[in-house]
Amino acid sequence: METQIHYFIQYLTIERGLSENTGKSYRNDLMQFLLFLEGLEEPGGDTAADRIRSWQDVTRYHISAFIHKVKKDGACAATIARKMTSLRVFFRYLSREKITLTDPGIDLEAPKMPFHLPKALSQEEMARLLDSLDPPVNAAGFRDLAMMELLYAAGLRVSELLSLTLGDVDLSLGYVRCFGKGGKERIIPIGARSVETLRNYLTAARPQWVTHLRERSLFINQRGKPLTRQWFWQMLKKRAERAGIQAHVSPHTFRHSFATHLLVGGADLRSVQELLGHADVSTTQIYTHLTDQRLKEVYNKTHPRA
Fold first, then answer.
1. Helical residues (DSSP H) of 19-157, grouped into ranges
2. Strands, E, within 131-211: which ranges?
3. What CATH number belongs to 2-96?
4. What's the CATH number for 123-300?
5. Which residues does residue 185 pair with via DSSP β-bridges, in sequence order?
6. Quick one: which H or E segment has residue 200?
7. What pLDDT shows up at residue 288?
8. Could you tell me the residue ranges of all domains in the chain?
9. Which residues carry out catalysis?
10. Closest to 161 (Cα-Cα) out of 255, 242, 237
């Protein structure tokens, strides 16, 4: 049964192009379910291990018992929903590959997720954070400012930012190319401020650190190596604290701020969807409260009876 999980993860990462981190999440959820099955007592006193010899033997009862255990252990709604998604996608795969004759996960309903508005910095806070590094005082300052300006200018995910290569930016035309979830390519225009900080970094900082000319990563550390997500998160946190930003700041804060400021400024939802790289506009619709708020403000300012 563990072998089928292994093949499933290969299918996700190779054929469907999901990220390594996503594959690990699926694997962890499914291995947790498998360990649960090994210790589960069936009605009548037998253990599940005595009756379950393959995934074909797993029923909706086993899945329900697992979800109940996860809830009892205090998992939040988001964790429960993710585990249910892992099971649902896994059993759909097994059914499609004719490994099982039935799909016990076909009618699984994820718990309702509490709605949380995306956290975004105000335009004033974002300006204060970026201006706190301008002008840079050293090579690290040139790099950090270029990264933060680009993150905000293009609304990138942190994984997309850190995987950029020298060939992914065109400073003469003012765009950046990145590969998002599922390896989907998108081209994003960037403004003059971001172009300037990138050019300064490539001229004044990066050449000092390059140890191998074959290193193509756009952003590197003082040893000439690519940067990690953990490093970037810590850098961002320190820079925000030094700038006096009280709000919690993470790489995703920049992405939310990018979308928020575009929509408040009048951009349409479809354009923001393309810029963010969302496959479905429903994902972008979490921001519709912003456009609704803007419409209300316009109405109150312009309607004679408002």
1. 20-39, 48-51, 60-72, 77-96, 123-131, 139-154
2. 169-170, 175-179, 185-189
3. 1.10.150
4. 1.10.443.10
5. 179
6. helix 192-204
7. 67
8. 2-96, 123-300
9. 157, 181, 252, 255, 278, 287
10. 255
- Residue 186 backbone phi and psi in degrees, to 5: -145, 150
* E strand or H helix at 148: helix 139-154
Dihedral Cα 202, 206, 207, 208, nearest 10 deg: 140
CA dist 295 → 85, 90, 169 (Å):
36, 43, 36
Residue 82 backbone dihedrals phi, psi, to 5 degrees: -65, -40
Distance CA 142, CA 49 (A): 59
Per residue, the 3-state secondary structure of 57-76, as one string, reads HCCHHHHHHHHHHHHHCCCC
| Six-digit token string for 162 | 């850190």
Of residues 294, 295, 293, 274, the one with CA closest to residue 284? 274
Q: Compute the distance between CA of residue 105 and CA of residue 95 in angstroms, rounded to an integer.
A: 10
Q: Residue 42 has which token pair? A: 């069936």
C-beta atoms surrounding 296 within 10 Å: 11
Per-residue pLDDT of the chain (306 residues; tens, 9 = 90+): 899 999 999 998 888 888 888 889 999 999 999 999 888 765 555 555 557 888 988 988 889 889 999 999 998 888 898 899 899 999 999 999 999 988 888 777 766 666 566 678 999 999 999 999 999 999 999 999 999 999 999 999 999 999 999 999 999 999 999 998 777 899 999 999 999 999 999 999 999 999 998 999 999 999 999 999 999 999 999 999 999 998 889 999 999 999 989 988 888 888 888 898 887 766 677 676 666 666 667 668 877 766
CA distance 101 to 80: 26
Helix (H, G, I), strand (E, B) or coil at 217: strand
